[in-house]
Write a sequence for this structure.
């Protein structure tokens, strides 16, 4: 995919490099802090969160090998079988560029209806200036306000609500919050 | 929260070319400084152990 945006940050370049590989194998979404940061939130981050469709072991191994071929390493293990076991157990795995310490891409499989819904309703967000898929603004706000709830997350949600004040679907936020309560906070 | 709202309004009301360089400078400097810090830290045995703990990984 052609990604035409100039003056990208090191973090954005890192994410695009990773996304360029992943999108050959499966659907993905970028969620949480990076969404706020690409919309102008002035805060640092050491990791970027990515959710991908559940893959069969063979296909994941192909993806992992492609990631490695492109100068990333997995910090938990070099063994794709072991990494796949983590993912299958809903444990995220982290990749960094070889010979660097940060940033990290934190990758996990979609684990329930909520993750699958976010992938199904994924969006490119033109205001970010990037041609990559994010979970919807409504989903990001709902997760930050209902589930994550740290000071940083609540500030991210406030920032996104302000940026998209004339565009967000408040009913959708409430619907997703209801699903969070049902599936993640029971 | 007031500052968050003020800055978000600035982002919403201005072109990406206005606010993006300011955000990028902050993000880039954070990444550059963190990598420089950890590169120096791992040069000693004790530092390597500290970095492993901080980064939750084997170096």
């Amino acid at each position: 995919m052609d990604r035409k945006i100039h003056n990208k940050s090191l973090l954005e370049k890192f994410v695009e490099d990773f996304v360029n590989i992943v999108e050959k194998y499966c659907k993905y979404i970028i969620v949480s802090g990076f969404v706020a940061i690409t919309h102008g939130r002035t805060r640092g981050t050491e990791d970027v969160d990515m959710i991908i469709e559940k893959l069969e072991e063979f296909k994941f191994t192909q993806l992992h090998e492609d990631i490695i071929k492109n100068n990333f390493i997995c910090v938990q293990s070099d063994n794709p079988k072991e990494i796949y076991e983590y993912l299958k157990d809903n444990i995220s795995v982290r990749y960094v560029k070889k010979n660097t310490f940060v940033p990290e891409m934190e990758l996990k499989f979609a684990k329930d209806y909520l993750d699958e819904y976010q992938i199904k309703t994924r969006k490119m967000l033109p205001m970010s200036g990037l041609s990559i898929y994010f979970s919807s603004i409504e989903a990001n706000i709902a997760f930050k306000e209902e589930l994550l709830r740290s000071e940083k997350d609540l500030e991210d949600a406030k920032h996104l609500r302000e940026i998209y004040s004339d565009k967000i679907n408040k009913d959708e936020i409430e619907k997703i919050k209801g699903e969070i309560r049902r599936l993640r906070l029971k | 929260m007031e500052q968050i709202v003020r800055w978000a309004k600035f982002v919403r009301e201005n072109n990406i070319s206005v606010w993006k360089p300011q955000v990028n400078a902050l993000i880039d400097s954070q990444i550059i400084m963190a990598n420089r810090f950890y590169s120096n830290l791992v040069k000693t045995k004790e530092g390597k152990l500290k970095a492993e703990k901080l980064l939750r990984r084997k170096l």
User: Anything to note?
Assistant: Chain B touches chain A at residues 1, 4-5, 7-12, 16-17, 19-24, 26-28, 30-32, 34-35, 38-39, 51, 55-58 (CB under 8 Å). Chain B has three helices and no strands. The longest helix of chain B spans residues 16-41.
